[in-house]
Amino acid sequence: MLGACKSKERGAKEEFARAHSCPEGRVTVKARPDLNWQTVVVGDLKPPAEVAADPDRLAKWQADRANAGGDLEVFEAEGCEHHDYLGCTHPKRPGRNGGTTTVLSEVTCMRRGVGEPSAADVSAQATAKANEALQKAEEARQKAAEKQAERAEKEAERAAKKAAKGK
Description:
The chain is an alpha+beta fold. It has helices at residues 8-20, 37-42, 49-52, 55-66, 119-165, and strands spanning 28-31, 73-79, 82-89, 92-94, 100-102, 108-113.
């Protein structure tokens, strides 16, 4: 006997309510067909320079990114002082003869808080911190080199004075 079909929107509402212990009556969910799940999680990445410079490669890169979310539909849910994006799909199970069967009575969702930094944001922040640390290290190296040069100059002056006295 087959179970009733569950909409992905219904699954998103149930997952959000479960995750935040929020009564379903206080949860609002709206479909976000304008969003791709990979973009929600990873962020809006830029293509490598060599790809951006080649129109054919750029078109392929953009098409690959557009399809990267698979069959996850994106929903935006709010309630009980929480605000999340959810990427939801009907799970697939092994079927007969090595195929797969989509289980329409179940919905599986992944959740990400709205406003949480994406992987691209985290990477950019880490890169900025690393660049700042490198800059500070370079400044410290330059100061140390300047001090060493000053010491060498003073030592040379002392040596020159000593040699002048010895004449």
